[in-house]
Amino acid sequence: MNETLERWSTRRAFILAVTGAAVGLGNIWRFPYITGENGGAAFLLLYIAFVLLLGLPVMMAEIMVGRAGRRSPVQSLGHLAAQAGASSRWRWLGLFGAFTVFCILSFYSVVSGWSIEFLVISINGGFVGASPAEIGAGFDAFLADPARMIFNHTLFLIMTMLVVSAGVAKGLERLNNLLMPLLYLLLLLLAGYAATTEGFGPALAWLFLPDVSAVTPLVVMHAMGHAFFTLAVGACALMAYGAYMPDHQSLPRAAGAVAVLDVTVALLAGIAIFSVVFAQGMDPGEGPGLMFVTLPIAFAQLPWGALWLSIFFLLLLLATWTSSINLAEPMVATLQGMGLKRGHAAAIVGLAVWLVGLLTVLSFSTLAEWRPMFGMNAFELVSTIPPEIFLPLGGLLIAIFAAWVMPEAAARRALGVGPGGFTLWRGLVRWVAIPLTLVVLVAGLA
Ligand code: TRP
What we know:
Blueprint: H1 11-22, H2 25-37, H3 41-69, H4 73-84, H5 91-123, H6 132-143, H7 146-166, H8 168-195, H9 200-208, H10 217-231, H11 237-242, H12 251-279, H13 290-300, H14 305-337, H15 342-362, H16 378-405, H17 408-415, H18 419-445
The structure holds tryptophan.
């Protein structure tokens, strides 16, 4: 084992780190707008089913491989494959994961930058007394202004890379301890406020009463992709965190806790946001601006609205920070594994992500109509293809590696469960998660 690797200091620290990775834009920004575009409750139920049947067992597989390998994802896969007498090409899976998070981080950083902008606006009281129409128009004007967006994107990447170059275990622990409880409190408050509005009833109906006729293979594929995205599974990023996991911690319990925390954050955000949507007669399918427009509208009507909204965007920013740190980790760990200094690796990754992120920035103005593939512009491409195709594909390969390639004894030890639990987990991965992912991917692509 590689003893020089850092470790999370406590069990709680590991769970918080993985929750920090999982909870982010996926829950508060992407979940509501994707649910809106895919018709509501049927999508939501599919997504929860995928979290349980697929996301959870594959998440356990991914963390388990990291804990068994105790190296960067590429090196862990190579090392464990050699131990199992399997092909050294499994290392490529680590590189594929690094490529996936690279694409994701390029838009993630830009959208996180939106939270910086909105934080500053709300601290300055910019939304106080603004009408819904004015708030919507303000958002559109912001999207059309690449310079402001680039400034925030740059700032956010620097914040991320500073923590990453300090080493995640140290850098993250303190941040997470404070952040997650506060975020929860605030979302509860928001959902509580939503319950007093007339949009609350329609929002609940829309979120929880499924319209089965809205389900197409494409909707199912969106739901599966989102389950992977929100749990941060499928790109070897949790594998990288698993390498720092203490030996005597129950992995299934940690993964279960994370999944529950992750889904509840999304549900609370969804309830708050859709209550506003229905109270204001807005369109649930409004797209990526949904959260950024609805929440300022909601808060503008609350006493102390500017203060609450500032706290909200601050927490959102911190939540996206802990997620983007996780997104950067596999790339930095890979370069570090190739002999680079951690700080240099972080700088290189930061610069490359920054450059590609410019494409997302310009997708809202100059390059909006530049559609290089599948009729999608650059932002639509990086925010759709990696989450919905690369992550399930990566998850599929991780699952195959964990449940078919790794020797049983090593897998069981790293999973830290008894024989019964192991059989259950492996059965789920082999006979449910793997075939289900394949079927949905093939059907969705066809
Ligand atoms: N899960 C995060 C979110 O919902 C995004 C994220 C962090 C992620 N790390 C990841 C997605 C690794 C895929 C892979 O905002």
